[in-house]
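debug: dumping io for the single-chain case to check the tokenizer round-trip. Nothing else runs in this session.
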Amino acid sequence: MPSTHDVSSLVAEAALDRPDMLAVVQSDGRSVTWSALEDEVARIATGLGAAGLVAGQRVMVAMHNRIEFVASYLGVLRAQVVAVPVNPRATAGEMARMLADSGSRLVIADGETLPTVRDAVRLLHAALAGETDELDAEILERAHEPRVYVVGAAPSDDEQAYESLRAAAPRPVPPLPDPEKLACLLYTSGTSGRPRAAMLTHRALLANIDQAAEVEPPMIHGDDVVLGVLPLFHVYGLNAVLGGVLRHRAKLVLVERFDPQATLDLIDDEAISVVPVAPPVFAYWIGEDQLRERLGPVRLMLSGSAPLSPTLVEQFTAATGIPVHQGYGLTEASPIVTSTLCSAELQEGSVGAALPGIEIRLVDELGHTPDGDDSGEIWIRGANVFSGYWPDGDDGPDADGWWGTGDVGFLDDAGDLFLVDRLKDLVIVSGFNVYPVEVEDVIREVAGVDEAAVIGVDDALTGQAVVAYVVPVAGAEHPSVATAVRDHCDVRLARFKRPSRIEVVEELPLTVTGKVQKGRLRGIERRRALGLLE
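debug: decoded output
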């Protein structure tokens, strides 16, 4: 059996062990066995080399959940090229920025994403030609004009079909010489400013897959059928779900997008036993008739990417009889840090104990360990931790391997972690990170806007929602400013980043140094939620 050099090696091992077993199934009925998936991965890896890519160069993957995403991502890793999975619902401006920043030389897009990719490539071309200043000069220094390969649609004259990337015959790729080589770039909020790409090595990805595999009782085992509704471009779907399926040689059922009724039907049809989801799914399902019967094949529900209400967990378990296990994770941790499967007992509000091989410590404002059960910033250490942010490894782990998450929590005597707050100004919508600075910068582009502040508010379906407070320029009419902001955000921001509500105000609360007091804005929203404001 080949040794595991990188995540793609898990496919080769599975193909030897169970070649004719189904590996990945799409909800539309398409499927691929382990041997066929290994063949596809090998062909893509060979094809990337034939296309002139060399180790360390970047390939953007802009697709929805489908078999070609799995094969492309693993083929890129096999070729020792760097994968850059991105949100297929990103806007052209967002995608152009990621193309430039990552220096991707090739993009693989599906039919639905292709129009946005084409617009992004045109914008990048214009920026490189000096025809627009929409992209920062600093990131343009890394940019290349990428070739586009198309899945499931007809390519234009300057594009190529996905099939042309598949080599006629796969050739062996030399083993990965160093697990510290960069495997993928995943765009996240970072700790400040615009989204940045977390640098995840082959070591980090494999480490978290192995750490999760040591959890007892197991999250996934070999005879499980696992729901793949979480987007593969997100680290939760990419490494926690896909990586776990590869490690245990389970079967993955891919869903392009979540539909409450269709997904319940699929769970029954495919006898899905493990359901990893984001918290909003529980709110969608809790009121469904005959929910226990419809989730009959399920043995385990896994929730991550955002906190889940203890009340909702209790209601769901009472309605279905299915245990719900939560975890805490971050893109920078590849992603899983804790799981309630590691806890001695389930406790309300806990996100569980650390996975094997991961250490957690708390740090107060002075850099010391908090007294007793006081809270502090959560710092983590383990082989799963990233190597810093692209391109220079900034803000990565310290010399001893510890990294401050920006989240605040406390640990009980049993080692269970309880989240309290965030040091970051991060908003998490349906499990996806929204950094307020990015949204504020887009809003300030609107002609009638003088200033803007963005916060997150609780939302029953999405966990949090984005709310924008906007100060208009003198003389601007409030309704027209709100409309202009909404229209501009619809063009410039992915749907999950767009404000769910826009409050046009005469002024923002400021500190004596001129910083927006977002705590006061959150207080206004809390009073509004309690019905104390009209």
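debug: round-trip ok. The first helix runs from residue 9 to 17.
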